[in-house]
Design a protein that fits this description.
Number of strands: 8
Structural class: alpha/beta
Number of helices: 9
Order of helices and strands: EHHHEHHEHEEHEHEHE
Number of domains: 1
CATH superfamily: HAD superfamily/HAD-like
Largest sheet: 8 strands, mixed
Strand content: 15-25%
Radius of gyration: 18 Å
Shape: globular
CATH class: Alpha Beta
Oligomer: single chain
Distance between the termini: 32 Å
Length: 223
């Protein structure tokens, strides 16, 4: 029986978000002129804040603006690698490193479940010793070019829980995966918290902190 430890990434494993920093990292090194498009990026964030577009569309727009409509995967790989190296060196919570080491020592299967793009989350997860990654996918054409279009769902909230359930089924773990420990900083992960046997709220914001106190979930400060 394989017991699981499932981790959110941004602001749980990492101190800071990673999506916009990834796009800026790529733009600065690949096409600095794209930084001139930042006012349009800001306008898209405003459109999201007033609910004219959803999170998935916001990601696609910003990907298109700062990274490009289609980019060959071979061109992205060195950018992904350098970004992942930087995140692991400077943006990982000390408590996350300790939890990962503990869960690995207990023989748990380590799963990173994130709304961030697998495009770079895979590289971060590999460097931290995770076994599997569940995240937002990108459409990749037959020409191996990565499109500024999400493949399937944006792995956020209920969609993340659906993707976790799909991964459990595809991995042959339905009904046999044993105890599940789940870590996140945000109340949007409530479906996954409620699914887990051992929910752990990590450096929670106000809404999650109140929910954790009401439900009796563990609350941890990972620094």
């Amino acid at each position: 029986m394989s017991e699981l430890a499932v981790y959110d990434m941004d602001r749980t494993v990492t101190r800071r978000p990673t999506y916009v920093p990834f796009l800026l990292h790529c733009a600065l090194r690949r096409a600095p002129w794209r930084l001139l498009l930042l006012p349009i990026v800001a306008a898209s964030v405003l459109a999201y804040s007033v609910r004219l577009i959803d999170r998935a569309r916001l990601k696609e727009i910003n990907h298109h603006l700062l990274l490009g409509h289609r980019v060959h995967s071979s061109e992205l790989k060195p950018l992904v690698d350098s970004f992942a190296d930087k995140q692991v060196a400077t943006n990982i919570r000390p408590g996350a490193r300790a939890a990962i080491a503990r869960d690995k020592a207990q023989g748990r299967r380590l799963v990173l479940a994130t709304a961030s793009y697998r495009l770079y989350a895979d590289a971060i997860a590999e460097r931290l010793g995770f076994d599997d990654v569940i995240g937002t996918g990108s459409i990749i054409g037959l020409d191996e070019r990565v499109h500024a279009k999400i493949a399937g769902e944006n792995a956020y909230g209920e969609a993340k829980m659906r993707m976790i359930a799909e991964w459990v089924e595809k991995s042959g773990l339905t009904g046999v995966h044993g105890h599940v420990r789940f870590y996140s900083d945000h109340v949007s992960d409530r479906p996954a918290f409620e699914w887990a046997d051992e929910p752990v709220a990590v450096n929670p914001h106000g809404k999650l902190k109140r929910l954790a106190e009401t439900r009796g979930w563990a609350v941890e400060d990972w620094g």
